[in-house]
Amino acid sequence: MHRGSLLAALAALLLAAPLAAAEESLWPQVGGDALHRGATLVERSLSACTVGALTLRWSQPIGRSPQGTPSVVGGRLYAGSANGVLWALDATSGQVLWSKGLGGRIATPVVDQGRVYALRGDDASNGLLVALAASDGQEFWRQPVNSNGHQSPVVGNGLVLVSSNRLYAFSAATGQPLWSYGDESGVAYEPAVVGDLIVGADDGKLVALTADGSERWWRQTSVPALAYRLRVSADGGLVFAGGFDGMIRTVSVGEGSLRWSAVTYGEVFAPAVADGMVFAQSSTNFVFAFDQQTGALRWKVDTTAGQLPGGQTSNFPPAYTNGLLVVATGLVDPGGANLENWMLILEARSGRQLWRTSLGRERATQPTIANGMLYLQTESRLLAFGLPPALSGRQQAGGRYWLFVPLTGTRASGSGC
After folding, report:
1. How confident is the prediction for the chain on average, in pLDDT?
2. Mean pLDDT across 72-92
3. Virtual torsion, Cα 396, 401, 406, 407, nearest 10 deg
4. Residue 4 forms part of a structural domain
5. Domain of residue 201, residue span
6. How many other β-carbons are positioned within 10 Å of the β-carbon of residue 415?
7. pLDDT above 80 (res 65)
8. DSSP assignment of 211-271
9. Residue 105: which of 165, 141, 148 has the closest Cα?
C-alpha cells in the first residue's frame, strides 16, 4: 500500500474508533431521567480541559418558555413553549424538523421508545396529555387531565405520570387512565421513579407509591409548601427534595427515614446528584455542594460574582457532566424583572469557575447536556453551545489530550485546563 494511503487509513481508524466506542448521552425528560438526577454520566467531550472552547452553535426562536427544558434523544431535540407548540429540531444544527400545535402551554416533553409525551395546560387547568411519534409528530393517543402546563410528564415502568392537583397515572402504550393519588390541593411537581417506587411531594409530605398507586410510606415535613421536584441518587438509595424554606431534605428510598438536611437560606429547587455530591442553586445567589451521604458542605459559590448585590437569582437546578457543573443563573429585581442572566460552568469538586457567558435579560431554566452540547431554553428561544469539531470527539488522558490530524498522523497536544 502506498505510504500516503496507509497514513490516511490509519488516521481514519484512529478518528473513527473513539466515535464508534462512544455511548450516546441522552437527556430524555425533565431532570435528565426518571430519577431526575440532573446529570449525564457518559459524556466525555466536555471537560475542564475543553470548556474554554465552547461557542454558541445555534439559536432558534420557539416562543416563550413556561419553565421547561429541552429533551434530547437520537440526535433530536424536543421542546415545548408557552404558546402551545411542541418543537422537534435537529440537535446539531437547530433546524426545525416538525412542530405540533397543541394549545395552552407546554413545559418539558418526554421521549421514550420512539414516542414523545407532551402535557398541555392553561390557567383554567384544562390539560391534555398527548403521545406522538418522535419521528414526525403523528398522534397515537390523547387524554384530558387537570394541568396548568407548568409541570412535565414523567415516564417510567410503563407509566406516564402527571402531577397537578393530584398525581395521575396513565398507560404509556395506550393512554388508558390507571389511577390517581392525592386530594385536590396536594401534588404540585414531578415525581421520581426509583426502581418499583414512585416518590413525590404531596402537600407538605414526601410519599412513596407502588406501581398501582398504593402508599408504601410517607414522611411529613415542616413546610406545607414542600412540593418541589425531586432529585434521586441512583446508587445511594436516597431522595433529595428542596423547598420554599431553603431546606434540602434527604430521606431513604426504602422507608422514608430522614438521613440529613441542609440549609441554603433561600428558595431552592431539588438538587442535582452525581459524583458523590449534591448540588443545589438557591435564590440567595449561591450554588452549594454537599456530601451525598452525610450532607457536609463541600463548597458554596456566589454565582453573581458580587455583581448587583441584593438581587435574587434564578433557583433552577444545575446540571452535571464529567466533573463539571453547568448553572443557568440571573438577577431579578424585587418586582421580578430580569436584570442580567448568565450560564456558568464550575469545576464540580471545588466550585472553581471555568467558563461564563452572558444571556442578557432572558432567564434560562436547567441546562440540558447531550453529546458534547449544552442546551438552554430561555424566555424566547433555544440556545445550543458546542465545541469545535476537533475537540468534540477527542480522547483525554491525565488532563491532557491528543488527536490525529487526517492524512498526516501528526500528533497535537495541550493541557487546555
Report:
1. 82
2. 94
3. -120
4. no
5. 23-392
6. 10
7. no
8. TTS-EEEEEE-S-TT----EEE-TTT-EEEEE-TTSEEEEEETTT--EEEEEE-SS-BPPP
9. 148
pTM for the model: 0.86
pLDDT of res. 43: 86
- Report the alpha-carbon distance of residue 156 to residue 171 in Å, rounded: 10
- The model's pLDDT over 4-28, given as tens digits with 9 standing for 90+, comes to 554 444 444 444 444 444 567 799 9
Quick check: is 39 in a domain? yes
Using CA atoms, how far apart are residues 285 and 282, in angstroms rounded to an integer?
Answer: 6
Amino acid at the residue 55: T
Q: What's the length of the chain?
A: 417
The CA distance from 386 to 374, in Å, is: 7
Name the pairing type of β-strands 353-360 and 368-370: unpaired
Return the pLDDT at 334.
Answer: 66
Task: Give the type of residue at 346.
Answer: L
With a CB cutoff of 8 Å and minimum separation 6, the contacts of 2 are none
Query: Cα separation of 146 and 386, whole Å?
Result: 38
**CATH number for 281:** 2.130.10.10
Contacts 24+ apart (CB under 8 A), 254-261: 255/217, 256/206, 256/208, 256/217, 256/218, 256/219, 257/219, 258/219, 259/293, 259/295, 260/294, 260/295, 261/295
The CA distance from 384 to 373, in Å, is 7
CA distance 341 to 33: 26
Give the model confidence (pLDDT) of 83-119 as tens digits: 889 999 999 999 999 999 998 889 899 999 999 999 9
Q: Residue 9 falls within a domain, yes or no? A: no
Residues 344, 29 contacting (CB under 8 angstroms): no
How does DSSP classify residue 334? T
DSSP 108: -
Q: Are 85 and 102 in contact (CB under 8 A)?
A: yes
Band of pLDDT at residue 406, cut at 50, 70 and 90: very low
As for how many domains the chain has, the answer is: 1
Q: Does residue 270 lie within any of the structural domains?
A: yes
